[in-house]
Structure formats: C-alpha cells, structure tokens
Amino acid sequence: MQRRQKRRAERVPGEKEREDSKMKRAVKILEILFLIGMLLMCGAVILAGNGKIPYIFGYRILQVVSDSMQPTISDETCIAIKQVKKEEIHVGDIITFVSDAPDIRGYLNTHRVHEIIQDTESGETLFITKGDACIAPDEYPVEYEQIVGKYTGELPFGKWIYRGIIFLTDRTHYFIVVIVPLLFCCMSYFKQLIAALLGKEKDAS
Question: Could you tell me whether strands 108-118 and 94-98 are parallel, antiparallel, or unpaired per DSSP bridges?
Fold first, then answer.
C-alpha cells in the first residue's frame, strides 16, 4: 500500500508540470491571437479612414455619411455591398458607385437604380440613379465600370461600428486604444525572446 501511495505521490508533480505547460501554451495562443487581432484592427481602421476597405469574399463594408437614402438606409451607419455582374443589376436595386457629380466627384455614392438606358452613340448601358430622400434623379448617369457593388443590407450594430471607426480614426484615440496595447504586447514578446536566448546560453555554458 505504501509503495502505491509513493508512486501516486511521484506522479503528481509531473501532472502539475503538464498543467502548467498547457496553461502557458494557452496564454501564448491568446497572446498571438490578440497580436493578430490588433494588427488587423490597425489595418482595418487605416483603410476605413481612407475609404479603401478591400473586398472579402466579394463583399465590402462601407460607411454611410449622408441621409440621401433615408428611410431605407440610415445615415452614420455601416452597410455591406457585393460585387455583381452588369446583368444582375435591375431597376429598384441599390448600388454604390464612383460619382461624377461635381460636389462629390471621385467619392462613393449609394443610390437606387431609377432607370436603365442605352447610350444612343456608344450603345453602352447607363444607370440613372436616385436617392430615396431626393426629389429628382441624379444628373449624371452611371456606367457599369463606376459601380463598386450592390447593396445587400445594413450591418447589425452598424451605427456602433460607424462610431467606433470615427472614434479610432482620431489619432489620439487610435494611439491609446491600438498602438499602446500593441507596444506592450511587442515588449512582452521581446522580453520572452531575450529570456529564452539567455537561458540557452546558460545551458550551453
């Protein structure tokens, strides 16, 4: 009986070491995930601030800053758009396009397709758009090449996401919320790396 108890007692430290090892691995995984998350947030905020968010699986998230599509789309929210072919766009669809209007030339605009016509000279398909809150259609027709996507819906908690992006595009907020934790995380990794290298040197000596 005493021998069995001794064997059991001998196994306990090994189990403790394994548990500690598992805990350390879990902490490292969480640290890596946190670092990746922070880096992705850095990139997302920078791109969102510049209006250059890339497509992910054919979808793209955009900020809405005007009320021209109310009540269908609220202002100061975030929406999702999807890349579509020309034949997938119909009257009544909401599209996002690069505007030719002098006051917002080169910026993205999201309006509903009011009419689809053919250019008499080139035979090209043109989309006449109109904001739901506007009285008249837009003055400048939209070519397919100008269309960046078709509206698929407003994001859940879109207004909160919008406010978060606006908050983080402020340099001071961005530095405190993103850069400072990222620096602490990097310092922690460097500390661990130096400790590991010093430990190897001691083992070698």
Answer: antiparallel
Cα gap 204→44, rounded to integer Å: 44
**What is the C-alpha end-to-end distance of the chain, expressed in Å?**
44
pLDDT score at 91: 95
170 pLDDT above the threshold of 70: no
Q: What is the pLDDT of residues 104-135, one digit of tens each?
A: 888 889 999 999 999 888 889 999 999 999 99
Half-sphere exposure of 180 (CA within 13 A, CB side): 7
Q: Residues with Cβ < 8 Å from 36, sequence gap 6 or more?
A: none
Reported pTM: 0.60
Q: Which two tokens stand for residue 173?
A: 């907020």
- Long-range (24+ apart) CB contacts under 8 A made by 85-91 are 86/125, 86/144, 88/150, 89/113, 89/116, 89/127, 89/144, 89/147, 89/150, 90/116, 91/115, 91/116
